TrEMBL record:
PANTHER family: SENSOR PROTEIN KDPD-RELATED, STRESS RESPONSE PROTEIN NHAX. Belongs to the universal stress protein A family. Transmembrane segments: none annotated. Gene3D superfamilies: HUPs. It comes from the Bacteria. This is UspA domain protein. InterPro entries: Rossmann-like_a/b/a_fold, Universal_stress_UspA, UspA. Residues 5-143 form the UspA domain.
Length: 143
């Protein structure tokens, strides 16, 4: 852990911002860089229903552009002299976070959990739980 970068996935929520502060603190403590990742879910569309006025590819690109702007804004607020890499990936959040961790050989993942319970937990994919269970590196879950 002490040699590898820290991966911090974000959905730009308040909870993710809280996890980011932990990631920065850990990176400063171990003097390692960190990677800030946002995953854009691939939009689904069926041309037969004619719901979308634009193609799913155009919508995904628009979502990536919006995420890039949010990422720039977030970086402007960070207080760290360590190297920060940002990336935006497209696909399933859990799959892409785990792939990024593997490909980049990160030392730790710091991820936010929204702390859902009951029916809400059942209805929403718990990304933090899935990442913590399947990652090959240590995972710090922040709520």
């Amino acid at each position: 852990m002490r040699n590898g970068q820290i991966l911090c996935p974000t959905d730009f929520s308040e909870t993710a911002s809280h996890a980011l502060s932990y990631a920065i603190e850990m990176a400063n403590l171990y003097q390692v860089g960190f990677r800030l990742l946002h995953v854009v879910e691939q939009p689904m569309g069926d041309e037969n229903f004619q719901i979308l006025a634009i193609t799913p590819e155009e919508l995904a690109q628009s979502m990536e552009d919006a995420a890039a702007e949010k990422m720039k804004s977030l970086l402007a607020k960070l207080d760290s002299n360590l190297p920060i890499e940002t990336m935006i990936r497209r696909g399933d959040a859990v799959t892409e976070i785990l792939a990024e961790a593997e490909e980049s050989h990160v030392g730790m993942i710091v991820i936010a959990s929204h702390g859902r319970k009951g029916l809400s937990h059942f209805l929403h994919t718990n990304v933090a739980e899935a990442v913590a269970n399947r990652a090959k590196c240590p995972v710090l879950v922040v709520k």
